[in-house]
């Protein structure tokens, strides 16, 4: 089966003052359909830049991103937006919920943006399923300020999952959460991968979060320095990953 996502020699430069900063310096990798992968690395290593390129939120200076067989950079802006909306879901460190909307209304946003009625038919069913999948049934009418931080992040995950994208990209989704609530969020992503067959790409600085992945890519100075294969497993203790990172001097 072909990979759902490929990076081919990605380079990304930003103008800074009179010169350029090279955030990525030729990154190539592939992600299989239904796989859970993580990107780790110190601040400034390029991992969030890479995630944004893979999700089509930004375009590379050179190189190519292939999403579900389509070369994103060869698409028009409208076609790239449509592909991103249909095939991907995003979860960020900051929840980006609309404060005046209820849980249900926040989760329904992808359908509303697409011009679909969220209160009818398959859309209504999917919204209910997504809310139940993150254990928030019964809180559909709550506004974000009536939820804990962990519950708000689970709303963001439900919103990312509601249109059942093939690919979910998560940028430090546990960065603002304590250990227990962070674990709840990771378990929600894990279930979406193992039970729904969705592909998860996670950016994190935390080995405990990365330990959920099948593979971990370690980035430094805009390059992939190592790939650590953990394999699919039900137990997500971080000790094997931490030991491997220590062996590599990372």
What are the SSEs and their pairings?
Elements: E1 5-16, E2 19-31, E3 36-40, H1 47-54, E4 62-67, E5 70-71, H2 77-87, E6 88-92, H3 103-113, H4 121-133, H5 149-161, E7 167-171, H6 179-194, E8 199-203, H7 207-210, E9 215-220, E10 223-229, H8 239-247
Parallel strand pairs: 3-8, 3-9, 6-7, 7-8
Antiparallel strand pairs: 1-2, 1-4, 4-5, 9-10
Describe this structure in a few short sentences.
By secondary structure, the chain is of the alpha/beta class. 34% of the residues lie in helices and 26% in strands. It has a single domain (5-247), classed as Rossmann fold.
Structure description:
By secondary structure, this protein is α/β, with parallel strands linked by helices. It has one domain (5-247): Rossmann fold (3-Layer(aba) Sandwich). It has helices at residues 47-54, 77-87, 103-113, 121-133, 149-161, 179-194, 207-210, 239-247, and strands spanning 5-16, 19-31, 36-40, 62-67, 70-71, 88-92, 167-171, 199-203, 215-220, 223-229. Helix 3 (103-113) crosses helix 4 (121-133), helix 4 (121-133) packs antiparallel against helix 5 (149-161) and helix 5 runs parallel beside helix 6 (179-194). The longest helix is centred in the last third of the chain and has 16 residues, at 179-194. The chain is globular, with a radius of gyration of 18 Å. The mean pLDDT is 89.
